[in-house]
Specification:
Number of helices of chain A: 2
Order of helices and strands of chain A: EHEEHE
Strand content of chain A: 25-35%
Number of strands of chain A: 4
Structural class of chain A: alpha+beta
Shape of chain A: globular
Low-confidence stretches of chain A: none
Strand order of the largest sheet of chain A: 2-3-1-4
Oligomer: homodimer
Distance between the termini of chain A: 17 Å
Mean pLDDT of chain A: 97
């Protein structure tokens, strides 16, 4: 399954808010065959990076939109380093 | 030690080129008390994400500059999800 990294910008809220939003992703992701694997938050700048596996960029976008409405500004299909 | 995610844009070269550059980072990082932990490459768009621990953004930038000269466009101090 392809791997993707997305970038959210200018997100308001604390790290714990993002943790809660991520839990909503985990509840929703199965409907789109997506697995959110990890995320990283720059709380000062409101930037969030999400790493997920799934069939397409759009699948990840659907999960975010339906789980909490916070969609990403960019989604990159990536290969993980080794 | 703080954790950082950087973003490189418009990088030319293959995934394997990035693997080789990363090896150069690993050889250099000890001089700056940095640990490059992982990276992700969007080969089509030339976008690279590097995750590293270190004392500062600048420490990571020094490693990249001295190892191979490819510095990042952005460096974000991040908290990793759980």
């Amino acid at each position: 399954m392809p791997l993707f990294m997305d970038i959210h910008r200018d997100v308001e809220g604390s790290f714990e808010d993002v943790v809660e939003a991520h839990k909503m992703d985990l509840e929703k992701q199965g409907e789109y065959d997506v697995e959110y694997k990890n995320f990283w938050v720059d709380e000062d700048e409101g930037t969030i990076f999400c790493l997920f596996e799934g069939p397409s960029k759009e699948a990840g976008e659907h999960v975010h939109r339906e789980a909490h409405g916070l969609t990403a500004e960019e989604i990159h299909e990536v290969t993980e380093g080794h």
